[in-house]
From TrEMBL:
Alphabetized UniProt keyword annotations: Lyase
Stored InterPro entries: ClpP/crotonase-like_dom_sf, Enoyl-CoA_hyd/isom_CS, Enoyl-CoA_hydra/iso, Enoyl-CoA_hydra_C
Family, per entry: Belongs to the enoyl-CoA hydratase/isomerase family.
GO CC, alphabetical: mitochondrion
Domain of life: Eukaryota
Originating organism: Musa troglodytarum
GO biological process: fatty acid beta-oxidation
KW Lipid metabolism (keyword) present: no
GO MF annotation list: hydro-lyase activity
Protein name in UniProt: Methylglutaconyl-CoA hydratase
Keyword tRNA-binding: no
Length: 312
Protein backbone atom coordinates (compact mmCIF):
# COMPACT_ATOMS: atom_id res chain seq x y z
CA UNK A 1 0.00 0.00 0.00
CA UNK A 2 1.21 3.48 -0.75
CA UNK A 3 2.17 5.55 2.22
CA UNK A 4 -0.06 8.29 3.50
CA UNK A 5 1.20 11.83 3.75
CA UNK A 6 1.85 12.98 7.26
CA UNK A 7 -1.27 14.48 8.78
CA UNK A 8 -0.16 17.65 10.42
CA UNK A 9 -2.46 20.05 12.20
CA UNK A 10 -1.32 23.66 12.27
CA UNK A 11 -3.59 26.61 12.49
CA UNK A 12 -2.68 30.20 12.00
CA UNK A 13 -5.96 31.21 13.55
CA UNK A 14 -6.14 28.93 16.57
CA UNK A 15 -3.49 27.83 18.96
CA UNK A 16 -4.82 24.29 19.34
CA UNK A 17 -3.77 21.59 16.91
CA UNK A 18 -5.79 18.64 15.70
CA UNK A 19 -3.98 15.81 14.02
CA UNK A 20 -6.55 15.23 11.33
CA UNK A 21 -7.64 18.77 10.65
CA UNK A 22 -5.37 19.77 7.84
CA UNK A 23 -2.71 18.59 5.50
CA UNK A 24 -0.19 20.80 3.83
CA UNK A 25 -0.41 20.99 0.07
CA UNK A 26 2.88 20.30 -1.61
CA UNK A 27 4.19 23.67 -2.67
CA UNK A 28 6.64 23.17 -5.47
CA UNK A 29 6.70 26.83 -6.30
CA UNK A 30 8.10 29.39 -3.97
CA UNK A 31 5.21 31.55 -2.88
CA UNK A 32 5.39 34.68 -0.80
CA UNK A 33 4.02 34.20 2.71
CA UNK A 34 0.32 34.87 2.75
CA UNK A 35 -0.50 38.46 3.54
CA UNK A 36 -3.57 38.26 5.67
CA UNK A 37 -5.49 41.34 6.55
CA UNK A 38 -8.79 41.39 8.31
CA UNK A 39 -10.62 44.03 6.34
CA UNK A 40 -14.02 43.87 7.82
CA UNK A 41 -16.66 41.94 9.59
CA UNK A 42 -20.40 41.82 9.26
CA UNK A 43 -23.01 39.42 10.52
CA UNK A 44 -22.28 35.94 9.23
CA UNK A 45 -19.25 36.94 7.26
CA UNK A 46 -15.70 37.75 8.21
CA UNK A 47 -13.71 38.98 5.27
CA UNK A 48 -10.01 38.45 5.00
CA UNK A 49 -7.97 39.18 1.97
CA UNK A 50 -4.74 38.05 0.43
CA UNK A 51 -2.65 40.25 -1.77
CA UNK A 52 -3.67 40.14 -5.41
CA UNK A 53 -6.84 39.22 -7.25
CA UNK A 54 -7.81 36.24 -5.09
CA UNK A 55 -9.88 36.79 -1.96
CA UNK A 56 -10.73 34.55 0.94
CA UNK A 57 -13.91 35.03 2.93
CA UNK A 58 -14.63 33.08 6.06
CA UNK A 59 -18.27 32.58 6.90
CA UNK A 60 -19.17 32.73 10.55
CA UNK A 61 -21.93 31.83 13.01
CA UNK A 62 -23.69 28.64 11.90
CA UNK A 63 -21.65 28.69 8.67
CA UNK A 64 -18.34 28.82 10.49
CA UNK A 65 -16.07 26.31 8.77
CA UNK A 66 -17.10 27.34 5.26
CA UNK A 67 -14.44 29.28 3.38
CA UNK A 68 -15.04 31.11 0.13
CA UNK A 69 -12.19 31.52 -2.32
CA UNK A 70 -13.11 34.22 -4.84
CA UNK A 71 -11.45 35.07 -8.12
CA UNK A 72 -11.56 38.79 -8.77
CA UNK A 73 -9.73 40.07 -11.83
CA UNK A 74 -12.55 41.65 -13.82
CA UNK A 75 -10.42 43.47 -16.41
CA UNK A 76 -9.09 40.16 -17.75
CA UNK A 77 -12.10 37.93 -17.03
CA UNK A 78 -10.11 36.23 -14.25
CA UNK A 79 -7.40 35.12 -16.67
CA UNK A 80 -4.52 33.60 -14.75
CA UNK A 81 -1.27 35.52 -15.02
CA UNK A 82 1.66 35.52 -12.62
CA UNK A 83 -0.05 37.69 -10.01
CA UNK A 84 -3.25 35.65 -10.07
CA UNK A 85 -1.19 32.47 -9.78
CA UNK A 86 0.61 33.82 -6.70
CA UNK A 87 -2.76 34.78 -5.24
CA UNK A 88 -4.07 31.28 -5.80
CA UNK A 89 -0.98 29.71 -4.24
CA UNK A 90 -1.25 31.92 -1.18
CA UNK A 91 -4.95 31.28 -0.80
CA UNK A 92 -4.56 27.52 -1.10
CA UNK A 93 -1.66 27.49 1.36
CA UNK A 94 -3.63 29.60 3.81
CA UNK A 95 -6.65 27.32 3.62
CA UNK A 96 -4.43 24.23 3.90
CA UNK A 97 -2.98 25.59 7.13
CA UNK A 98 -6.33 26.53 8.62
CA UNK A 99 -7.62 23.88 10.98
CA UNK A 100 -10.99 25.64 11.23
CA UNK A 101 -11.75 25.05 7.53
CA UNK A 102 -14.31 22.34 6.79
CA UNK A 103 -15.31 23.06 3.20
CA UNK A 104 -14.22 25.50 0.49
CA UNK A 105 -16.42 27.16 -2.13
CA UNK A 106 -14.45 28.42 -5.14
CA UNK A 107 -16.24 31.08 -7.16
CA UNK A 108 -15.82 34.22 -9.24
CA UNK A 109 -16.74 37.77 -8.29
CA UNK A 110 -16.75 38.69 -11.98
CA UNK A 111 -20.15 38.48 -13.70
CA UNK A 112 -20.60 35.91 -16.48
CA UNK A 113 -17.20 34.32 -16.12
CA UNK A 114 -15.63 31.78 -13.80
CA UNK A 115 -12.17 32.04 -15.33
CA UNK A 116 -10.91 32.65 -18.89
CA UNK A 117 -7.87 30.43 -18.39
CA UNK A 118 -4.26 31.39 -18.84
CA UNK A 119 -3.51 35.07 -19.42
CA UNK A 120 -2.82 34.97 -23.14
CA UNK A 121 -1.57 38.56 -23.25
CA UNK A 122 1.07 37.85 -20.62
CA UNK A 123 1.85 34.52 -22.32
CA UNK A 124 2.68 36.29 -25.57
CA UNK A 125 5.57 38.08 -23.85
CA UNK A 126 7.05 34.92 -22.31
CA UNK A 127 9.95 32.86 -23.64
CA UNK A 128 9.45 29.11 -24.06
CA UNK A 129 11.24 28.41 -20.78
CA UNK A 130 9.12 31.01 -18.96
CA UNK A 131 6.00 29.36 -20.37
CA UNK A 132 7.28 25.99 -19.18
CA UNK A 133 7.92 27.34 -15.68
CA UNK A 134 4.54 29.03 -15.54
CA UNK A 135 2.61 25.98 -16.71
CA UNK A 136 4.49 23.75 -14.26
CA UNK A 137 3.60 26.17 -11.46
CA UNK A 138 -0.03 26.24 -12.52
CA UNK A 139 -0.12 22.43 -12.61
CA UNK A 140 1.34 22.11 -9.13
CA UNK A 141 -0.98 24.83 -7.81
CA UNK A 142 -4.03 22.94 -9.04
CA UNK A 143 -2.58 19.76 -7.54
CA UNK A 144 -2.35 21.62 -4.22
CA UNK A 145 -5.99 22.65 -4.61
CA UNK A 146 -6.95 19.05 -5.29
CA UNK A 147 -4.87 17.89 -2.31
CA UNK A 148 -6.60 20.13 0.23
CA UNK A 149 -7.82 17.84 2.99
CA UNK A 150 -11.30 19.40 2.98
CA UNK A 151 -13.93 19.22 0.22
CA UNK A 152 -13.93 21.93 -2.44
CA UNK A 153 -16.94 23.03 -4.51
CA UNK A 154 -16.48 25.09 -7.68
CA UNK A 155 -19.27 27.50 -8.61
CA UNK A 156 -19.39 28.24 -12.33
CA UNK A 157 -21.58 31.03 -13.69
CA UNK A 158 -20.45 31.81 -17.22
CA UNK A 159 -17.25 30.82 -18.96
CA UNK A 160 -14.85 28.22 -17.57
CA UNK A 161 -12.21 27.98 -20.26
CA UNK A 162 -8.78 26.37 -20.46
CA UNK A 163 -7.00 26.76 -17.13
CA UNK A 164 -10.29 28.00 -15.67
CA UNK A 165 -11.91 24.67 -16.40
CA UNK A 166 -8.78 22.88 -15.17
CA UNK A 167 -9.12 24.72 -11.86
CA UNK A 168 -12.74 23.59 -11.59
CA UNK A 169 -11.69 20.03 -12.41
CA UNK A 170 -9.28 20.17 -9.46
CA UNK A 171 -12.20 20.73 -7.10
CA UNK A 172 -14.18 17.84 -5.65
CA UNK A 173 -17.59 19.04 -6.84
CA UNK A 174 -18.81 21.46 -9.50
CA UNK A 175 -22.09 23.38 -9.67
CA UNK A 176 -22.97 25.57 -12.64
CA UNK A 177 -25.61 27.97 -13.85
CA UNK A 178 -27.49 27.10 -17.05
CA UNK A 179 -25.79 29.83 -19.06
CA UNK A 180 -22.31 28.53 -18.31
CA UNK A 181 -19.95 27.39 -21.04
CA UNK A 182 -17.06 25.00 -20.70
CA UNK A 183 -14.16 24.35 -23.02
CA UNK A 184 -10.55 23.26 -23.19
CA UNK A 185 -9.59 25.28 -26.29
CA UNK A 186 -5.82 24.74 -26.02
CA UNK A 187 -5.39 22.60 -29.15
CA UNK A 188 -6.78 25.56 -31.11
CA UNK A 189 -3.77 27.52 -29.79
CA UNK A 190 -1.47 24.66 -30.82
CA UNK A 191 -0.82 23.55 -27.21
CA UNK A 192 -2.50 21.05 -24.89
CA UNK A 193 -4.25 21.54 -21.57
CA UNK A 194 -1.20 21.56 -19.32
CA UNK A 195 -2.50 22.15 -15.81
CA UNK A 196 -3.97 18.70 -15.28
CA UNK A 197 -6.71 18.90 -17.90
CA UNK A 198 -5.58 15.95 -20.00
CA UNK A 199 -5.55 13.81 -16.85
CA UNK A 200 -8.47 15.04 -14.76
CA UNK A 201 -11.05 15.46 -17.52
CA UNK A 202 -10.92 11.78 -18.64
CA UNK A 203 -11.03 10.65 -15.01
CA UNK A 204 -14.25 12.64 -14.56
CA UNK A 205 -16.11 12.21 -17.87
CA UNK A 206 -14.38 9.14 -19.34
CA UNK A 207 -11.66 8.95 -21.95
CA UNK A 208 -13.80 9.12 -25.07
CA UNK A 209 -15.77 12.22 -24.08
CA UNK A 210 -12.59 13.87 -22.82
CA UNK A 211 -10.78 13.16 -26.08
CA UNK A 212 -13.57 14.69 -28.11
CA UNK A 213 -13.61 17.85 -25.97
CA UNK A 214 -9.81 18.22 -26.02
CA UNK A 215 -9.32 17.36 -29.71
CA UNK A 216 -12.06 19.73 -30.89
CA UNK A 217 -11.98 22.41 -28.16
CA UNK A 218 -15.78 22.45 -28.46
CA UNK A 219 -17.64 24.70 -26.03
CA UNK A 220 -20.39 22.90 -24.16
CA UNK A 221 -23.31 24.26 -22.18
CA UNK A 222 -24.13 23.70 -18.53
CA UNK A 223 -26.85 21.22 -19.50
CA UNK A 224 -24.44 19.17 -21.58
CA UNK A 225 -21.86 19.40 -18.80
CA UNK A 226 -24.25 17.90 -16.28
CA UNK A 227 -25.36 15.19 -18.70
CA UNK A 228 -21.76 14.01 -19.14
CA UNK A 229 -20.98 14.21 -15.42
CA UNK A 230 -18.62 17.16 -15.77
CA UNK A 231 -20.64 19.06 -13.16
CA UNK A 232 -22.71 17.70 -10.30
CA UNK A 233 -25.57 20.16 -10.72
CA UNK A 234 -26.72 22.60 -13.39
CA UNK A 235 -29.20 25.11 -11.94
CA UNK A 236 -30.96 28.19 -13.34
CA UNK A 237 -28.53 31.01 -14.17
CA UNK A 238 -27.54 32.98 -11.09
CA UNK A 239 -28.39 30.21 -8.63
CA UNK A 240 -25.18 28.19 -8.68
CA UNK A 241 -23.66 29.91 -5.68
CA UNK A 242 -26.79 29.34 -3.63
CA UNK A 243 -26.80 25.66 -4.57
CA UNK A 244 -23.09 25.32 -3.75
CA UNK A 245 -23.66 26.94 -0.38
CA UNK A 246 -26.44 24.45 0.37
CA UNK A 247 -24.04 21.63 -0.38
CA UNK A 248 -21.31 23.26 1.70
CA UNK A 249 -23.73 23.63 4.62
CA UNK A 250 -24.68 19.96 4.40
CA UNK A 251 -21.02 18.98 4.47
CA UNK A 252 -20.33 21.43 7.30
CA UNK A 253 -22.84 19.62 9.54
CA UNK A 254 -21.03 16.31 9.29
CA UNK A 255 -18.15 15.04 11.36
CA UNK A 256 -15.28 17.19 10.04
CA UNK A 257 -12.64 14.54 10.55
CA UNK A 258 -14.85 11.95 8.86
CA UNK A 259 -15.22 14.21 5.83
CA UNK A 260 -11.44 14.53 5.58
CA UNK A 261 -10.94 10.82 5.89
CA UNK A 262 -13.68 10.11 3.33
CA UNK A 263 -11.98 12.44 0.85
CA UNK A 264 -8.61 10.89 1.54
CA UNK A 265 -9.92 7.32 1.24
CA UNK A 266 -11.62 8.05 -2.10
CA UNK A 267 -8.67 9.93 -3.57
CA UNK A 268 -6.04 7.43 -2.43
CA UNK A 269 -8.12 4.41 -3.30
CA UNK A 270 -8.83 5.48 -6.86
CA UNK A 271 -5.11 5.58 -7.64
CA UNK A 272 -4.29 2.03 -6.55
CA UNK A 273 -5.53 -1.55 -7.00
CA UNK A 274 -8.59 -2.71 -5.04
CA UNK A 275 -6.81 -4.53 -2.19
CA UNK A 276 -4.59 -1.49 -1.61
CA UNK A 277 -7.64 0.74 -1.90
CA UNK A 278 -9.40 -1.20 0.83
CA UNK A 279 -6.27 -0.91 2.98
CA UNK A 280 -6.46 2.83 2.43
CA UNK A 281 -10.08 2.79 3.57
CA UNK A 282 -9.12 0.81 6.69
CA UNK A 283 -6.35 3.24 7.53
CA UNK A 284 -8.71 6.18 7.21
CA UNK A 285 -11.42 4.49 9.29
CA UNK A 286 -8.87 3.63 11.99
CA UNK A 287 -8.01 7.28 12.40
CA UNK A 288 -11.61 7.97 13.40
CA UNK A 289 -11.95 5.23 16.02
CA UNK A 290 -10.54 7.17 18.94
CA UNK A 291 -12.21 10.48 18.15
CA UNK A 292 -14.60 12.27 20.46
CA UNK A 293 -16.81 12.98 17.47
CA UNK A 294 -17.43 9.27 16.84
CA UNK A 295 -18.75 8.88 20.39
CA UNK A 296 -20.76 12.09 20.04
CA UNK A 297 -22.43 10.73 16.89
CA UNK A 298 -23.53 7.60 18.72
CA UNK A 299 -24.68 9.57 21.78
CA UNK A 300 -26.69 11.99 19.64
CA UNK A 301 -28.38 9.09 17.86
CA UNK A 302 -29.31 7.46 21.18
CA UNK A 303 -30.57 10.75 22.60
CA UNK A 304 -32.47 11.64 19.39
CA UNK A 305 -30.71 15.00 19.03
CA UNK A 306 -28.45 16.71 16.52
CA UNK A 307 -24.80 15.89 17.06
CA UNK A 308 -22.43 18.64 17.97
CA UNK A 309 -19.05 17.84 16.46
CA UNK A 310 -15.83 19.42 17.62
CA UNK A 311 -13.45 18.01 15.06
CA UNK A 312 -11.64 16.07 17.76
N1 LIG B 1 -6.08 36.21 -21.29
C1 LIG B 1 -5.90 37.54 -21.28
N2 LIG B 1 -6.92 38.41 -21.44
C2 LIG B 1 -8.15 37.91 -21.59
C3 LIG B 1 -8.39 36.53 -21.61
C4 LIG B 1 -7.28 35.66 -21.46
N3 LIG B 1 -7.43 34.32 -21.43
N4 LIG B 1 -9.71 36.32 -21.79
C5 LIG B 1 -10.27 37.54 -21.88
N5 LIG B 1 -9.32 38.49 -21.78
C6 LIG B 1 -9.48 39.94 -21.87
C7 LIG B 1 -9.86 40.34 -23.27
O1 LIG B 1 -8.72 40.40 -24.10
C8 LIG B 1 -10.47 41.70 -23.02
O2 LIG B 1 -9.45 42.63 -22.83
P1 LIG B 1 -9.53 44.07 -23.59
O3 LIG B 1 -10.67 44.76 -22.93
O4 LIG B 1 -8.19 44.68 -23.29
O5 LIG B 1 -9.77 43.78 -25.04
C9 LIG B 1 -11.18 41.50 -21.70
O6 LIG B 1 -10.59 40.36 -21.08
C10 LIG B 1 -12.65 41.24 -21.85
O7 LIG B 1 -12.79 40.13 -22.73
P2 LIG B 1 -13.96 40.04 -23.82
O8 LIG B 1 -13.59 38.97 -24.80
O9 LIG B 1 -14.22 41.39 -24.39
O10 LIG B 1 -15.17 39.62 -22.90
P3 LIG B 1 -16.43 38.72 -23.30
O11 LIG B 1 -17.33 38.81 -22.12
O12 LIG B 1 -16.96 39.07 -24.63
O13 LIG B 1 -15.85 37.21 -23.39
C11 LIG B 1 -14.58 35.29 -22.71
C12 LIG B 1 -15.29 36.59 -22.27
C13 LIG B 1 -13.87 34.75 -21.49
C14 LIG B 1 -15.64 34.29 -23.21
C15 LIG B 1 -13.61 35.63 -23.87
O14 LIG B 1 -12.80 36.72 -23.45
C16 LIG B 1 -12.71 34.49 -24.26
O15 LIG B 1 -13.13 33.60 -24.95
N6 LIG B 1 -11.43 34.56 -23.83
C17 LIG B 1 -10.41 33.63 -24.28
C18 LIG B 1 -10.36 32.46 -23.35
C19 LIG B 1 -9.41 31.39 -23.84
O16 LIG B 1 -9.27 31.07 -25.00
N7 LIG B 1 -8.75 30.80 -22.84
C20 LIG B 1 -7.92 29.66 -23.08
C21 LIG B 1 -6.53 29.88 -22.65
S1 LIG B 1 -5.61 28.44 -23.03
Amino acid sequence: MRGFPALIGRSIFRSSSHDLRSTHPTATVAAAPPLLRRIGSRRGLIIQTLSGPVRIERLSDSDSGIIELKLDRPEAKNAIGKEMLRGLQNAIETIGNDSSANVVVVSSSVPKVFCAGADLKERKLMSASEVQQFVNSLRSTFSSLEALSVPTVAVIEGAALGGGLEMALSCDLRVCGEESTFSLPETGLAIIPGAGGTQRLPRIVGRSAAKELIFTGRRISGKEAVSMGLVNYCVPAGEAHHKALQIARDINQKGPLAIRMAKQAINKGLEVDMPSALDAEEECYDQLLETQDRLEGLAAFAEKRKPSYLGK
